[in-house]
Each structure stands twice: as structure tokens, then as C-alpha cells.
Specification:
The chain is mainly beta. It is built from 13 helices and 46 strands. α5 crosses α6. The N terminus is likely disordered. It comes from Chryseobacterium defluvii.
């Protein structure tokens, strides 16, 4: 109960402080009273005085993100704390970023942190929580902070605390903002229509010279001129004959475009719009406090038919029924729906992916149909523009498809309905002993409606539709016994707890094809069932836990905790395990020699060690071999061996060591921390290869077979450069390092190669394993690779010596080797906030130094023989003349497969700096607005993803942690104007 009262007190203080800031009240006596209140922070299953913490706990208060145009709390985490790396969310409205805390917690299972909302584990989407309902969030990073969550805490914990009411005058707040949504990451530079034809002609000519050298240059030129259109590109958008378009490598100077509507991006991408409205009401008496809110968010993306709409309503009530009994409850209802653009993260190479299409289609094709004689754009009988189905395109330009038409005609709609509920009861048994119980019940109903049109695309000519739905239910019930007592200068707090967690997942889906009538995508309007399935999964956990905190004069600090957890994912004999931590701290500031120091306002040394677990696998029945149903042959039933289990498989365990120094100087004008952590993951879950002859699905068995570590330093500093009655100026920064390395593989595993990475002892799981690109031979423009050892002693026409180095022009003989890592040397953020009288300005930049990105998007634009695909402007620097020094091979249809092979040629530096966020505000003086019944009024101008600088235009180096890229919905730039007012 004490923890609940402290939580409410903290929220009230934060809320009251926020109101003071907004109203620019300058009451000196209030500030003095606040300084007398011990600052408390949210910790696992309770609260604690900040000065007695020994764990790594970063607190982010509502005022730091309340004025930003964000749709979920995940976006506010970016840059908020050292040691926290964020892969930015896509531009799809409502999407959430991926988050890693202190490195790569696992290789084969989840690396996402655990989310806890008001003391209860939360597994739903972050977009279901209204950011303006959040009072604060705390990022727990070390074992001393996370171990009470045991088997789910290996990747860190994010505690989200929602707003509560406060005693006193009722307050009504109304917030509104509206603004612009656009693209933040520019597109790669590509050649235009005039440059394109001669480049493709050159590739054809050079390829002909390579395969038929005896024919001579003139014959090769003629061959390229003759086959440029009819044999390769299929479309000539200039008003000259096909065989006169490019002669001897020169575009016909008399050629004029027959039509100019060659831009595929413009019809698909536009300016989006964001609006947000919120009304909340709070207050309370000496016995009961309440907080109620309703909100509406509507954001349309910069890609057509992509949007997100959310309604939320929330009520929270806390009541001191008796001196010994306190009750509280909260309930949130959320309804959201959205149109979803095809995201490259899910469908990187899909033809209907608008980001892939607009990036990679050649600049010579129009999306629209044209009259073959007059070249005028064609319209149907209803006056609608007609689209070109692509019958006359090169093989790299998706013949028979039209992404604009498909995006317009197809549907992908999702709907979510949430109930998020919490309740607690707190019994004061005696002055020292408190018994509390908490229950949380969340339910999510998800629906997805898909429709594939019958005119063009994958579903043509029949059309198809899918209806999918799932329901997630989570029930958490815990009981906490808390004993807190002081003996002289000795302070003790002991907690004992028990918790049950239940998760139920129910899924069903049905698909049909052969559409009957137009403009109806309900399943009843389709004839043939193509798929109908359902699935139910259960997951259970139980834990018993305890924590002991001790301090002497808030000077010498000790903390210990232990939790026994059981997970239904594992077999009974390995289901239970213990997770624990011990931490200690020395608050040097409390020593006699520093207590009265005017220079040092805080100095604390702390450290901890502990073990936490991770059971976040994709399988709910890891210890059981399973079979897949649904492989029927007409009327004969059939099942298929699906998963071969190792019954001894169990948790991944994280052994974490943390050491930190917290400091403050000059009346806390300068504050900060320095930390070192070493995080060892044991029993890594890996797919162990199995011979094909064993008949095991996937030719692998998932086992606990590896060990790796993550270690690094974290730095954070905040300084008030100026702090007086009229002007405050603060600057802040944080920085983090990360070293990841696999130290052990067992069960006969020496390496695991997956895509561009190879996992082996002594290397990171994000180290690149690629063919070794050497460059371009100045003599003939051939692509060159270092020769693999197996071919070093052989002689062949594709092996040569260049500048004393043995190289090959054949990528299949290239040497593989480690080629850098996706992990940066340093990452973090910095920013400033300025408040001058009524004005305030805050900004934040994020940055990264070091690391490499494998830029497959750029690779697709650098083909040495594009047959209708777009080309980067960098291709203009290709080799053309003997003796020329360049790193771009000759355009050549014959050698193109080697030039464009996957290799370290496509690695690019991941360094970036981003202007992540800025907010400008103006607050009216209370006396100037009181006549209207207002207590505060603030006008805001805010922006997200305002600017970035990367190693290459178009590059997005933070879309994944492993350094890969995709043709995805790039993040949005959002600029809004709004106001907050209180009555």
C-alpha cells in the first residue's frame, strides 16, 4: 500500500509541476516545499527513494514527451536513455519501433524488452496506449532492477505508469494538434529518361563484344541499336524509330518525348494529415481521486490508402475506503483501425510493394495507357484514367503489373479493439506491514480484411478475399506482502510476492476466390474456398519472488532479490528455475566530508550482479514435437511432421554485471551518470543442423548450445547553463558503446551462416560474412573479387593478377571473409531546452558513429545490365575507357551477374545524425487568461524526423539492428501546431 501511495504522490507532484511550468507560475514557497519531498521512482512492483536505488533505472517524465506528435510511447524512447537502441518505426501510421536494451540479448528468440503497465505485464500493441495518458516510463536495464520479473526480463523492462488524479481542485484539460505528414528520408538519386537509353545500349553493346569479340565494334554497335527496344526495353517513349533512338551510344538529338507522365511516385505519395484531440478531467477529495480521459487520433500517411485512426477512453479511480484499506481501478477502451500500405518490411520484393516499385522501375515507363497514334492519355467511358498493364516492359519492370492501380483497387484493412483493465486492493495490516493484491485483465480483438482485385495483379482474373481474426487475452494476478521499518538510522524493506500469468490466443482465417459481383469484398461474394483454418494457443507462467532493501542513513545501500519462475513453454522437469540479483551502493554525498559541500550535490557509487531469463520463443510448446494439420488429399486426411523438439530445452539465461556512478554538481545544475555493464547470455537457443536423411523439418533441432556477451559503457549528462527566474537553458547528451561476441558453440556447431552474416566463436552475431570485392580492372572494366583459397593455385581465364593481387572476375570463385559489423562504435542523442519567460524550445538529435549497413536497395540500382529497372546516378561513373580508375564496373550484359553479386561492395558506413524532434511553445501568463476561466494556455509547434544526414542519399541506416535494408515505408516527417488549455 505504501508503494501505491508513493506512486500516487509521485504522479501528483509531476502533474502539479507540469501545471506550474505551463502556467509559468513563480511561487517560491511551492518550490521550497517540493525540495522537501523525497524524490521517488517507479521500480519493479513498487516505488523507491531515488537516492537509495542501486539499479540502473532511467525515468522519463510526461513533460519530456507530452507535446510531441507521437502515436505510441515507443517513439518517445528513441534517444531517451543511454544503452537503448531504437530501430525507427516505418512511416505506416500507428507503427511502433523495435527496441533493444544493452545489446543483442539473443540470436534465435525475442530481443524485445518486457513492457509493464501499472504493475502488470502488457503484451498488446504500444499503439493502443494513448501517450497523453502516461505519467512516466522507466527503463530498467540491469539485473538489480529487472530480476523480480525473472524469466521475462533478460532484455530489460519498460515500466509504464499512467496518470492518476490528485486531491484538490478539479482540473479540465483540452489538447488539440493538427499538421502535416510527409516523407523524411529522400529517395536515391536515379538517372532520367534521357540518360537511361544510352546506358542500356552500352550494356548490350559491351555484352555483345564480350560474347562475340570477332564480330568487331561496329557490328556490336549495330546489334545494340537494333535490340535496345525490341529485344530488351520494349518501350520507346521518344518520337523517333526504335532503330534510330540510340546510334553509336548517342541519344538521337532530334528525339522528343511523346508523353511526360513517367513519374510513378507522384500518384502514390502525397501530403498526409495528422490531427489529435484529447480531453481529460481529474481531481479528488481527501479520500478519492480520479482521472478520466477521452482522445481521438487520426493520421493519414504520405502514401495513398495508408492511415491510422484511434479512439481511447480511460477512467482511473483510487479511494481510501478506510484508514487500513485502499482500493483502485482503471479501465481503458481502445478502438483503432487503419488502411495499410504494403510495407517492405513484410513484402520486400513483392510487385505490389509501392516503395520497391517506385524506386526500381525504369524512368521510361508510364503508369498510364496512351493512344498509340496521338500519344494522348486514355480514359474509360466513365472518365476514369486508364492504367498501363505493362505488356511492353523489360523483364526488370514487372510486366503485367501496375502498382498504382493495384494499390487503389486492393484492400488491407486492420481493426483492433482493446480493453485494458487494472485493479488493486491495499490492506494496512499494521504501521509496518502492507498486503496488496493486483489484477490485470487485457483483451485484444484483431481483425484483418484483405481484398485482391480481379483486374490486375496476383488475384486476377478471379479476385480473392481473406478474413482473419485473433483474440488475445491476458490475465495477471499477484499478491504482495511488504514490510517496511526503520530502526534508528537503519531502514529495511522486505517484500514477498506471488504471481500467476495466463495468456490465451485464438486465431481463425478464411479465404475465398472467384468474385461474383463488383464492389463487394465480403466472403459471401466469392465462390471457391481456398483456405479455412483456426488455431488456439495457451501460455502459463507462475512465479514466487522476494526482495530485501536496506540502507543506513541513505548512505550505505544494499538490495537483494530472488524469483522462482515456471513457464509452460518447457518440460516439467526443467520448467522451474531461479533468477536473482544482489546490489550495493555507497552514497558518498551523505558522508560527513561531502554533506555540506556546495559543489557536490550528489555522488553515488553503485554496482550489481544477477541472473534473469528469456523464454520469448515463437513456439509455445518447445519441448513437444508437433505435427501440422491440413495436408489433406481430397477426402483423405493428412498431417505433416512439423517440429522436432528437444525435451531438455530451457531458458536462455542472462548473467549481468553493472557498475555505475551517479553525480550532481552545483545544486544539481550538472547531473549525470557513467555505467559499465557486462551481460553474458548462456544457453543460447540455436537451430542445430541435422542431416537431411534424418527427415527432421527444416533440417535442424532447436537446442540450448551457445554463449555470448554484450558489454559496454553508458554516459549521460545534463547541465543547466543558465538557471534564473526568467531564463533557463539546459543541454543534455548521452552516449553508449556496445561490444557483442559469441564465446561458445556446442553440439558440433562451428558456424551458422544466415544471409549476409556468419555466427562463429570470436565474432558478433551481426558480423558480415561476404564475398570480398576488390574493385574494377582498369584495363577492361571487369568486376574483380579476391580469389577463394580453393582456386588460388588454379589457372583459368577468369583468374588474373591485378596490381600484384590474385583476383577473379567470377563471383562464384570469390573469397568469403568477415567484412565489418552492423554494430556501431558509439550511439546516443543530445539536445537542449530553453525557457525564456513565456517561450520554451526543446530539441533532440540522435546519432550513430561506426558500423556498416548492407545497402541492398542501392545494390538494386547499380545493375550493370538493367532490363527496365532504374539506375542510380552513380552508374554514370562506370568504367568506359582503358586505364580509367573507378570502382564501378563497365556496363555489360554478359558480366552483370558477377558485378551485382552480393559482396562487401554494398556495405556503406552507418554513421548518421538526425534532427529527431523539436518543440516550440508559448505559455500565457495566468493573470492574462484567468478572466476566461483558464488556468493555463499553451500554443505549440512540434516536429518529428525533421532532418538527417547519412553516408548516402536515400540510405536509412537505423531501420534494423542487423544492418539490413528493405524497400520499406520510410519514416514520416510530422509537423504539427496545437494548443493545450486547462480550466
Amino acid at each position: 500500500m505504501m508503494k501505491i501511495r508513493l506512486s500516487i504522490l509521485t504522479t501528483a507532484v509531476l502533474f502539479f509541476t507540469g501545471q506550474m511550468i505551463d502556467a509559468q507560475s513563480k511561487k517560491k514557497d511551492t518550490a521550497a516545499k517540493e525540495n522537501q519531498i523525497d524524490e521517488v521512482v517507479i521500480v519493479a512492483y513498487g516505488t523507491q527513494k531515488k537516492e537509495t536505488l542501486v539499479g540502473s533505472n532511467t525515468e522519463i517524465k510526461a513533460k519530456q514527451f507530452a507535446d510531441r506528435p507521437i502515436s505510441n510511447i515507443g517513439q518517445a524512447i528513441d534517444g531517451a536513455s543511454p544503452g537503448v537502441k531504437v530501430a525507427t518505426s516505418t512511416g505506416q501510421p500507428g507503427s511502433a519501433p523495435s527496441i533493444q536494451i544493452r545489446g543483442i540479448g539473443s540470436y534465435g528468440i525475442s530481443t524485445a524488452p518486457l513492457y509493464v503497465v501499472d504493475g502488470v505485464v502488457y503484451t498488446g500493441s504500444l499503439s493502443a496506449i494513448n501517450p497523453n495518458d502516461i505519467a512516466s516510463f522507466n527503463i530498467l536495464k540491469d539485473a538489480a532492477s529487472t530480476s523480480l520479473y525473472g524469466s521475462a526480463a533478460a532484455n530489460g523492462v519498460i515500466l509504464i505508469t499512467t496518470k492518476s488524479g490528485r486531491k484538490g481542485t478539479d482540473i479540465l484539460n483540452f489538447n488539440m494538434s493538427t499538421g502535416y505528414v510527409g516523407r523524411s528520408i529522400p529517395e536515391y538519386d536515379r538517372v532520367d529518361v534521357h540518360q537511361y537509353y544510352p546506358l542500356i545500349w552500352e550494356a548490350i553493346r559491351n555484352g555483345r563484344l564480350t560474347t562475340n569479340p570477332s564480330d568487331g565494334l561496329a557490328a556490336a554497335n549495330t546489334y545494340a541499336t537494333t535490340n535496345l527496344i525490341s529485344g530488351v526495353l520494349k518501350t520507346n517513349v521518344f518520337n523517333v524509330a526504335d532503330n534510330q533512338l540510340v546510334v553509336d551510344g548517342i541519344l538521337n538529338p532530334n528525339a522528343q518525348l511523346k508523353y511526360t507522365d513517367l513519374d510513378w511516385q507522384k500518384p502514390l505519395m502525397k501530403t498526409g494529415f495528422r490531427q489529435n484531440y484529447e480531453l481529460n478531467y481529474s481531481g479528488g477529495s481527501n479520500k478519492t481521486t480520479y482521472f478520466a480521459s477521452v482522445s481521438y487520433t487520426n493520421e493519414t500517411g504520405y502514401v495513398i490508402k495508408s492511415d491510422f485512426e484511434r479512439f481511447t477512453a480511460r477512467l482511473k479511480v483510487d479511494s481510501q475506503i478506510k484508514s487500513w484499506l485502499k482500493l483502485g481501478t482503471s479501465i481503458s477502451g481502445v478502438a483503432s483501425n487503419g488502411n495499410n500500405a504494403v510495407d517492405g518490411a513484410e513484402s520486400n520484393n513483392a510487385f505490389q510493394n509501392p516503395f520497391r516499385w517506385t524506386r526500381t522501375i525504369g524512368p521510361i515507363y508510364s503508369p498510364y495507357a496512351h493512344d498509340p497514334t496521338t500519344f494522348a492519355t486514355l480514359y474509360d467511358d466513365d472518365g476514369n484514367i486508364m492504367y498501363d498493364p505493362g505488356s511492353a516492359r523489360g523483364v526488370d519492370a514487372a510486366t503485367g503489373r501496375n502498382v498504382i492501380q493495384e494499390v487503389i483497387l486492393n484492400k488491407n484493412i486492420t481493426k483492433n479493439y482493446y480493453i485494458i483493465s487494472r485493479a488493486y486492493a491495499e490492506f494496512k495490516v499494521d504501521p509496518y506491514l502492507t498486503l496488496s493484491t493486483n489484477v490485470g485483465y487485457d483483451i485484444r480483438n484483431f481483425r484483418r480484411n484483405r481484398y485482391g482485385n480481379k483486374i490486375i495483379g496476383d488475384a486476377a482474373p478471379a479476385g480473392n478475399a481473406t478474413r482473419a481474426t485473433f483474440t488475445e487475452q491476458t490475465l495477471t494476478f499477484n499478491q504482495l506482502l511488504n514490510y517496511k521499518r526503520k530502526f534508528g538510522m537503519h531502514n529495511f524493506e522486505f517484500m514477498l510476492g506471488h504471481e500467476n500469468y495466463k495468456y490465451l490466443y485464438e486465431f481463425s482465417s478464411a479465404s475465398k476466390k472467384d468474385q461474383v459481383v463488383d464492389n463487394n469484398d465480403d466472403l459471401i461474394n466469392f465462390v471457391t474456398i481456398t483456405d479455412a483454418t483456426s488455431q488456439t494457443d495457451n501460455y502459463r507462467k507462475e512465479g514466487v519472488f522476494s526482495r530485501l532493501n536496506y540502507d543506513y542513513k541513505s548512505k550505505y545501500l544494499l538490495s537483494a532479490s530472488i524469483r522462482w519462475d515456471a513457464s509452460s513453454r518447457f518440460a516439467k522437469d526443467v520448467r522451474w528455475d531461479s533468477f536473482w540479483s544482489i546490489g550495493a551502493g555507497w552514497r558518498i554525498k551523505a558522508e560527513d566530508f561531502l554533506r555540506k559541500s556546495n559543489t557536490v550535490s550528489e555522488l553515488k557509487l553503485r554496482g550489481s550482479y544477477g541472473e534473469v531469463g528469456n523464454d520469448g520463443t515463437n513456439e509455445y510448446y518447445m519441448y513437444q514435437s508437433t505435427y501440422a494439420l491440413g495436408y489433406n488429399n481430397v477426402q483423405e486426411p493428412g498431417i505433416l511432421f512439423n517440429f522436432f523438439a528437444d525435451p531438455s530445452i530451457t531458458w536462455e539465461a542472462n548473467k549481468q554485471t553493472d557498475a555505475g556512478l551517479d553525480f550532481g554538481f552545483f545544486d544539481s545544475r550538472i547531473t549525470g551518470s557513467v555505467e559499465y555493464y557486462n551481460r553474458i547470455t548462456d544457453d543460447l537457443i540455436f537451430p542445430v543442423p541435422s542431416p537431411v536423411s534424418n527427415g527432421i523439418p527444416g533440417n535442424s533441432i532447436i537446442k540450448n548450445v551457445g554463449t555470448m556477451y554484450n558489454r559496454g559503457f553508458e554516459f549521460a549528462i545534463s547541465a543547466d547553463i543558465i538557471r534564473n527566474e526568467n531564463l533557463t537553458w539546459n543541454i543534455n547528451a548521452n552516449a553508449s558503446t556496445l561490444k557483442n561476441e559469441v564465446t561458445k558453440l556446442s553440439d558440433g556447431i562451428t558456424e551458422i551462416i544466415s544471409g549476409t552474416k556468419k555466427v562463429s566463436v570470436g565474432h558478433s552475431v551481426y558480423d558480415y560474412w561476404l564475398k570480398q570485392w576488390y574493385g574494377v580492372d582498369p584495363a577492361d572494366g571487369s568486376p574483380l573479387f579476391l580469389v577463394a583459397d580453393a582456386y588460388a593455385g588454379t589457372t583459368a581465364s577468369d583468374i588474373r593478377t591485378v596490381n600484384g593481387t590474385l583476383v577473379t572476375t567470377n563471383n562464384t570463385k570469390a573469397k568469403f571473409d568477415y567484412s565489418g559489423t552492423a554494430i556501431p562504435d558509439l550511439f546516443g542523442s543530445f539536445g537542449t531546452s530553453i525557457a525564456y519567460k513565456q517561450w520554451s524550445l526543446s530539441t533532440m538529435f540522435t546519432y550513430q558513429l561506426g558500423g556498416m549497413t548492407y545497402d541492398s536497395n542501392y545494390q538494386s540500382l547499380m545493375s550493370s545490365y538493367s532490363q527496365g529497372g532504374a539506375l542510380s546516378k552513380d552508374i554514370l561513373d562506370r568504367w568506359t575507357t582503358p586505364g580509367q580508375i573507378t570502382d564501378i564496373p563497365a556496363l555489360n550484359s554478359s558480366t552483370a551477374p558477377h558485378s551485382n553479386a552480393a559482396s562487401n561492395r554494398w556495405l556503406v558506413k552507418s554513421d548518421f545524425i538526425s534532427f529527431r524532434q523539436a518543440t516550440l511553445g508559448y505559455s500565457f501568463y495566468p493573470e492574462s487568461i484567468s478572466q476566461y476561466g483558464l488556468t493555463s494556455l499553451k500554443i505549440l509547434l512540434s516536429g518529428e524526423n525533421l532532418w538527417s544526414k547519412t553516408a548516402r542519399k536515400g540510405l536509412e541506416p537505423v531501420q534494423t539492428f542487423n544492418g539490413s535494408t528493405a524497400n520499406r515505408y520510410t519514416p514520416s516527417r510530422i509537423i504539427t501546431i496545437g494548443f493545450n488549455l486547462s480550466f
